Amino acid sequence: MPNKYIRYSDKLDGSVGYALLKSDSLVKLSGPPWTQTEEISSEPLTGDRFELLAPVQPSKIVCIGLNYHAHVEASYSAEEAPERPLIFLKPPSSIIGPGDKIQHPKESERVDYEAELGVVIGQQTKNISLDEAVDAVFGYTCVNDVTARDLQKTDGQWSRAKGYDTFCPVGPWIVTGIDYSDLLVEGILNGQVRQSGSTAQMIFPIPFLISYLSSIMTLMPGDLISTGTPAGIAPMISGDVIEVRIDQIGTLRNSIA
Ligand code: MG
Stretch 72-83: mean pLDDT, rounded? Predict the structure, then answer.
């Protein structure tokens, strides 16, 4: 049975931490749920006592570019589908939580949303085989790989275009124990569905990504892998509301400042 894990800020006692979210209660944990943790207390979910924070504090965010055929064809051409995963990093400082505002940098004239499935790593992982790769997964969440599209093109390197503060909304929680292989990933701008693709359409499926990445860099517990975006990316402007909705996970909602 899937579990939902959150990070919270408790307005009653000022505490911040990880918790297991149940339908009518929140079970505070002594640490991140992918470590050995103890249950501290069970609190009723009443009023607006708890604020949801981004559910991860990763040592790194590894992102995959051009991982859905339809997105590659729409943004480039079918011939440009990569032969191996195209990887880049977003800095952990770019993370914001559910409801937080995305800031539009003044240097950019086009800031796009990219709805993506996020994989949260559960254990230290190096050189893991394809067959064992999903054992490294703790759970799944929603990610918006916000991108300053014009700067991505002018720079060639993607670190600036993808790395601004607030450019990595994550959440609203991590769901464990679900099947990653055919989840509908949607990007919804101001209530209109603009992106809709199944994880079954990934060019490189999740086990391959984990095995491949672990041959390059040690994946640490709590690290976040963002697995690429379906077709339908478009810009956002001030006041827009952008949602990333994924089957069996939930909806991550942010607005543009
Ligand atoms: Mg992306």
Answer: 75
